[in-house]
Structure formats: structure tokens, C-alpha cells
Amino acid sequence: MYPILKAVMYLWSLLPLPVLYLQSRLLALFAYHVVRYRKSVIEVNLRHAFPEKSDAEIKRIRRDFYRNFCDVIVEIVKLMSISEKEIKRRVRLVNPEAIDKMLAHGHGGVAVFSHFGNWEWMAAGLGLQLPFPTYGVYKPLTNKAFDKLMLHIRQRLKNRMITQAQAYRESMRLLQSPCYVGFLGDQNPAPKGKMYFTPFMGRPVPAHLGIATIALKAKAPMYYFDHRRVRRGQYTIELVELPTEDLYPFSKRSVHQLTDRHVEYLEAVIRTDPAAWLWSHRRWKRSPKPGDAQSEKLSES
Question: pTM of the prediction?
Fold first, then answer.
């Protein structure tokens, strides 16, 4: 199945972007009006996150979410064949001066980003502009053919991928030399044992502690890769360092504080352009239980 799927996706990707965007708009109309893809999940998430917004505003964000989401789908397809020159032209680094600071400490760093804008284009475009290796941590898909296809898409240009199961061991090894290891900071952690909850968009969510743990144990700087859609097919990225100097020596509390910081930064990004985030996933499907650790910020709110 994989060779057929790969061939079909490659041929589809050869269509010009204007044609792909026309297909995206038709797909968005179908998803919004006919299939109503995860409509109830999106509606509930938006109303909890923005209780101050009117019904008309919530409806507008939901409609724009479908449009952005379908644009992301066709843009990911385009990664099957897009050239390095083209993706670099469409994904622009706005503060390249930050690279010198990223390299100054002589070893690797941790990058955090999210399902905002087009995270796949961000990773592909930025990986071609940074002067050191870049690795992304991913969760393998259940469908083997699609998993192999996504791995091909993500590694076609320059980036290399690490599975979640390998993340800790490989990150600690890689971070001994100049490189950046990227993590999606808005995924739900696996429900194993006690969890850590932090405030996010007005409600507590379980957060991965592994990202902060790796950064602090490796004494690696943490950068938020803040990517924004300027217009269709055009993105900017700002490399924003999150402070860690005050979080040593390493402790459980310092891991919690750094986790709070990158989640808090993500929330600020989402509020600037709500429709660009992935509202269709069940980010708040778990609530704190007895024994779960909770952020100090939850007791303050």
C-alpha cells in the first residue's frame, strides 16, 4: 500500500499551490457544512477558552479554523515535492541574529512549538536555515503506510526524526553537540501513573514533563519556535528563548516551572490568532485526580 500511497501523494503535490488552495477551500466547505468534522469538540473547546466572545465570534473562529486546517493539509501534501528554495522563500526567519546566541554555549538546545499555523512547514523551512542539525520528536501513527509516508515527508529536506520512545535517551546524547531537538508542546501525555496539570486557556491540562526535564538535565537552552501565518503560503518564525537561568539546581519544582513557561507562551500565541490552532483535538479530556501534581499557577487562579 505504501508505494501506491506515496505515488498518489507525489502526483497530487505537483499541482500548483493556487490549485491546491482551491481544493482546500472546497474541502473546508465539505468539512464544515457536510461532514461537520469534530464540530462539537471544536465548539466546546472554543466556548471554554473564550467565554467572553459572542456566538458570532465563536462561529467565525470555527469557520476560519476549518479553512486554516484544510490549508495545512494541502500544504503538507506540497511537501512531497516542494523545492528547498521555495520552502525557504515561504518560511522566513525574522530574527536570524538569535542563531549566534543559540550556538554560543557550544552544545545543543531544546525547541518547543505547537499545532499552530503550519508546524510541518515551520520544521521543514527552518531546518534548512539553521547551521546545525535539527531533530523532531514524533509519535508514530497507527497506520503503518501513513506513518511511513509522514516520516518520508518530514525527513525529505533536512530534518531527522526521533520517536517518543527514543526521545529521552537520544536527546540527552544529541544535546552534547550543537543541534536542536524539537518537541510539540501541546500534545496530551500518555495516562501512565501520576500526571502534572498546568493552566491552559482557562482550564487545567496534563502536560509533558519530559521536555523541561531534558532541557534542564542537559543544561540546554529552551527556545519557543514562534511561527505565524502572514498570509496563505507565507509564514514567519521568531526564535524566542525562554528563561531557565533561575531554575537551577535541577529539581521537580524547576521542571514544573519550565513546563508552565512554555505552555503559558503557547497560550499567548494562540490568543493572537485563535483560528490557527488545532481546536479539533481533545486537549482537555482529562481532569486532575487525587495524587496528580498541579501547577502553583492553578492555586493562584
Answer: 0.94
